[in-house]
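Review form for a predicted model. The reviewer records the input and the model, then writes brief findings.
Reviewer: anonymous (R2)
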Amino acid sequence: MTEMTKRERVRASIAGEAVDRAPASLWGHDFLREWSNEELVGATCEQYEAYDWDFIKINPRWSMFPEAWGAVYSPPSDQSNPTMVSAALAELDELHDVVSVHAERGVFGEHIESTRLVVERTGGGVDVVQTVFSPMATVGLMFGHPRAFKQAAVEAPAAVHAAIARVTETIINYSRANMNAGASGVFYAPLQWASHDISTADFYREFGRPYDLQVLDAIRDAEFNILHVCHTNNMLSDVLDYPVQAFNWDDRHETNPDLAEVWSQTDKCVMGGVSRVGLGQLSAAEIEAQASEAASVGETRVFVSGGCSIPPQTPPENRAAVAAGVRGG
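Model under review:
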């Protein structure tokens, strides 16, 4: 088959059509550089250019979402997570103060600009997706700890629903604004709430699913929306009906379904195949073998990537091994 362009390869995979090879990409935090929009764009594009990825997933600092509602974090001094100084929500009564914030100002405006700049720097020749946390995940982060959010949901469920609904409006507007800035779609993440380790199916159906569907329905026309189901013991089977083009999860973890299993259960694309933990620990040869194995799961509808954001210390040779695994060395 004639070699495809990146966009042709991604579009054919999404459509279930023949491809010259599986598309591949990696993404991860650079905890030191993601506090500056200029540095975030630089780090993102440098990785894309170094490994010639088939699509770009922008990986902003995760704290940006609660920051938009007033949470304060101190930037790290090394490649580690930021430290929370104060949560956006400290008391149950404060749920009534949660409003829909402007989706194109402040920290959201900065990251819409990062989308525009990445699209501009890459000349529009590659699909760019921006990270978006779900409304439930965002309100959970506003409390600072999952236990506090779960307690609030028990003690004041109506107030929690009202707060999530107002956050949903902002998340929809932010997602649309990123598309207007050139993004092909979003990387939509409910974080740990779609995991049996943290949540339950009933809890997620009440506080997660209705708002997920509002967001995803509002951006249904996007060309490349990805649902990322995080954590171990995940609830992927409960969300396979979501209106997205691809599902990403940690398929290499023993508590989660593997790539081939889910590929056979859906007509959407599956994305993963490379152990995110292994990327920082295994040899380049082992990583290349994982990537090659993942690429062979199906003739199409397979994207090779990590099961989540990769460790910052991932060696360059292991990143390159993912590309080599799908390109035949």
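Findings: The chain has one domain: 6-327.
Further findings: Strands lie at 55-58, 72-74, 83-86, 127-133, 185-189, 226-229, 246-249, 269-274, 302-306.
Recommendation: see findings above.
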